[in-house]
Write a structure and sequence with these properties.
By secondary structure, the chain is mostly helical. The protein has 4 helices and no strands. It has a domain at 36-81. It is elongated, with a radius of gyration of 26 Å.
């Protein structure tokens, strides 16, 4: 019989704790939603605009002097599509 009392007490504590947790939840942060939208727009620009992607890659990876780290940085941009290489025309 004592196990029944213990199980009942444990169940009541779980229900009480879960009730408190759900009551303390706050509504979604509007700043978080804006951040998600901005991230999606940035990714859309990376995917759809090769010139933008090349510029961002230069800004973010151009100052990295370690060859492996720079290659890793540049490879992360390749996930959004091929980045055009700059070719110098000969005259």
């Amino acid at each position: 019989m004592p196990w029944l009392f213990s199980a009942g007490l444990a169940g009541a504590l779980v229900l009480a704790f879960c009730g408190r947790v759900s009551a303390q939840q706050t509504p979604p942060d509007p700043g978080a939603a804006a951040n998600i939208r901005q991230s999606q727009q940035y990714e859309q620009m990376l995917r759809g605009n090769p010139a933008f992607r090349a510029k961002r890659m230069q800004l973010e990876c151009g100052t990295i002097t370690d060859t492996e780290l720079r290659a890793s940085c540049e490879a992360s941009f390749q996930a959004y599509g091929p980045t055009p290489t700059t070719t110098k025309s000969r005259h």
